[in-house]
């Protein structure tokens, strides 16, 4: 039971960090650097106390009372409608709806347009009430001219830009909700299932079979998984899925690969992905097999202990990048994108080359001392009866604490980075 609790703790750590990254991404997407507040909708929903981001294609905010009950919904026109300009810039309008998805009214949240024009529109109650009572879909399909929606006198361009952006914003979300992709398996998904079956055979099959086919299998991994499909697990992939969602319907094979990479080590203790699927790991092992034995070097214990901290440091950097606005391409931290030769960046090519060169002297050098993705998968791996709560479990808890802090202070961090850019 203690081992099971420890394993569940480790899985909970990973899940919590992923949720915190997702939560920040949703708020960044919806709230940006100019958050909507509950006070702005109190005139239309008097009991409004807090707002909760909606992680759906609507990209709006649920309005809640003090008890956490849903009162309505609010959606902003920016930045989705940033191409719809008034006289001197965009205007961010709030569309406030009740629980039945009927519009209660419009509010102006922020504007880059001329102050006097914006003020005239805010004071023109007749214009802002034109949408009242319409459902989301009805407003999205509204013919502005037929509905008699005309510009406010003296601020025609600005007010019509607001009208057009309200329609466009509601229409955009409606169309995205209707366009949810159905589950589909393409050839590469079936090929990934075949790779998973072969990996299971190499991990759990008869020793004679595994020994006989190991080298040809590793060559096949490099050729297909690496150079042809390019379906490799990486920090950029995991962060992207945490922020934007898992592509269950469009890339089921890759999702199954990630699930197997996490669940097989968790349940069996076998590092399925790192030892039997990763083409970079296969390339290092093949290189160690063909290089002269005299090339191998033994690193001092102190050097090994120091290098073993590098994957954790890279996970820390990945977490900070995922939760802030630091413009760093995570693909450059790992070698995996180098296998997609046509689009590989210089940084990832250098990491791949250095990792392979190091493997010529220290077996599996990159896997042992440089791979944050391997460290993540290894973290959830079962280790048998001798497994105990260790320093890495404490370090993981500290990462959760940092993620929670950055999640809580995400807006402060973004504004600070914006100010120093």
Gyration radius from CA atoms, angstroms: 27 Å
Summarize model confidence as the mean pLDDT.
88
Helix-strand pattern, N to C? Answer: HEEEEEHHHHHHHHHHHHHHHHH
Overall body shape:
elongated
DSSP helix fraction: 55-70%
> What's the end-to-end separation, in Å?
51 Å
Task: Describe the protein's architecture and organization.
This protein folds into 2 domains: 2-177, no CATH class; 187-387, no CATH class. The chain is built from 18 helices and 5 strands. The protein has helices at 2-31, 115-123, 125-128, 136-140, 156-178, 187-204, 207-229, 235-244, 252-268, 272-276, 279-290, 301-307, 310-323, 346-359, 365-369, 372-379, 391-408, 410-420, and strands at 50-53, 61-64, 70-76, 91-98, 103-111. Strands 1-2-3-4-5 form a 5-stranded antiparallel sheet. It is elongated and about 85 Å long. It starts with a helix and ends with a helix.
Features:
421 residues, alpha+beta, five-stranded antiparallel β-sheet, 8% strand, elongated
In short:
The chain is 55% helix and 8% strand. The chain has helices at 2-31, 115-123, 125-128, 136-140, 156-178, 187-204, 207-229, 235-244, 252-268, 272-276, 279-290, 301-307, 310-323, 346-359, 365-369, 372-379, 391-408, 410-420, and strands at 50-53, 61-64, 70-76, 91-98, 103-111. The longest helix has 30 residues, at 2-31.
What's the topology here?
Elements: H1 2-31, E1 50-53, E2 61-64, E3 70-76, E4 91-98, E5 103-111, H2 115-123, H3 125-128, H4 136-140, H5 156-178, H6 187-204, H7 207-229, H8 235-244, H9 252-268, H10 272-276, H11 279-290, H12 301-307, H13 310-323, H14 346-359, H15 365-369, H16 372-379, H17 391-408, H18 410-420
Antiparallel strand pairs: 1-2, 2-3, 3-4, 4-5
Helix pairs in contact: 1-8, 1-17, 6-7, 6-9, 7-11, 8-13, 11-14, 13-16, 13-17
């Amino acid at each position: 039971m203690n081992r099971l609790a420890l394993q569940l703790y480790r899985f909970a750590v990973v899940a919590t960090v992923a949720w915190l990254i997702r939560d920040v991404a949703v708020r960044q997407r919806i709230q940006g650097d100019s958050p909507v507040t509950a006070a702005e909708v109190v005139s239309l929903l008097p009991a409004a106390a807090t707002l909760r981001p909606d992680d759906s294609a609507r990209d709006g905010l649920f309005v809640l009372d003090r008890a956490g009950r849903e009162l309505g919904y609010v959606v902003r026109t920016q930045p989705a409608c940033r191409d719809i300009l008034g006289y001197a810039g965009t205007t961010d309008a709030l569309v406030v709806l009740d629980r039945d998805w009927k519009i209660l009214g419009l509010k102006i949240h922020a504007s880059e347009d001329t102050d006097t024009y914006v003020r005239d529109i805010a004071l023109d109650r007749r214009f802002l009430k034109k949408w009242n009572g319409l459902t989301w879909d009805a407003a999205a399909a509204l013919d502005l001219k037929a509905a008699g929606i005309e510009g406010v006198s003296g601020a025609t361009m600005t007010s019509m830009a607001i009208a057009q952006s309200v329609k466009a914003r509601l229409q955009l979300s409606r169309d995205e909700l209707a366009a949810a992709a159905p589950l589909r398996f393409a050839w590469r998904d079936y090929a990934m299932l075949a790779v998973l079956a072969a990996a299971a055979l190499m991990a759990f099959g008869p020793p004679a079979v595994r020994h006989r086919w190991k080298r040809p299998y590793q060559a096949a991994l490099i050729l297909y998984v690496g150079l042809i499909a390019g379906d490799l697990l990486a920090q950029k992939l995991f962060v992207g899925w945490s922020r934007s969602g898992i592509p269950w319907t469009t890339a089921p094979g890759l999702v199954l690969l990630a699930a197997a990479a996490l669940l097989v080590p968790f349940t069996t203790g076998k590092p399925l992905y790192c030892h039997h699927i990763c083409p970079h790991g296969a390339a290092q092992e093949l290189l160690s097999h063909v290089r002269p034995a005299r090339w191998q070097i033994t690193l001092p214990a102190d050097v090994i202990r120091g290098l073993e901290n590098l994957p954790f440091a890279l996970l820390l950097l990945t977490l900070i990048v995922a939760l802030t606005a630091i413009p760093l391409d995570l693909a450059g931290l790992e070698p995996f994108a180098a296998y997609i030769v046509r689009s590989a960046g210089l940084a990832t090519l250098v990491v791949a080359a250095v990792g392979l060169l190091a493997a010529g002297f220290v077996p599996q050098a990159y896997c042992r001392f440089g791979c944050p993705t391997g460290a993540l998968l290894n973290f959830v791996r079962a280790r048998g009866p001798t497994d105990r709560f260790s320093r890495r479990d404490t370090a993981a808890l500290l990462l959760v604490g940092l993620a929670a802090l950055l999640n809580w202070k995400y807006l402060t961090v973004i504004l600070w980075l914006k100010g120093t850019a």
